[in-house]
Amino acid sequence: MAKLKDKVTGKVKQVVAEITGDGKLQEEGKQQEEKAKQKPDEVNPFPDLNQLT
Questions:
Q1: Which of 26, 40, 44, 50 could make a disulfide contact with 17, Cβ separation 3.0–4.6 Å?
Q2: Which residues are within 8 A (CB) of 26 and not within 5 positions of it... i.e. 6 or more apart?
Q3: pTM above 0.70, yes or no
């Protein structure tokens, strides 16, 4: 969940920065998105629940 949160927050910062013209905020958003990409995917402790038999 943290990976998704960082990805969305980074994108929101970039959009706001583009509207306001804030270069520092845009860089923060890019860095936050990169940080999210480097995090491992969340592990599903119950993989069988996604499959209906």
A1: 26
A2: 13, 14, 17, 18
A3: no
Distance CA 22, CA 14 (A): 9
For residue 47, what are its two tokens?
């993989």
Q: Copy the structure tokens of residue 26.
A: 């845009």
Q: Which two tokens stand for residue 22?
A: 């804030």
pLDDT, tens digit, for every residue of 1-53? 778 888 899 999 999 999 999 999 999 999 999 988 887 776 666 666 666 55
CB distance 13 to 25 below 8 Å: yes
22 φ, ψ (degrees, to nearest 5): -90, 100
In the chain, the amino acid numbered 52 is L
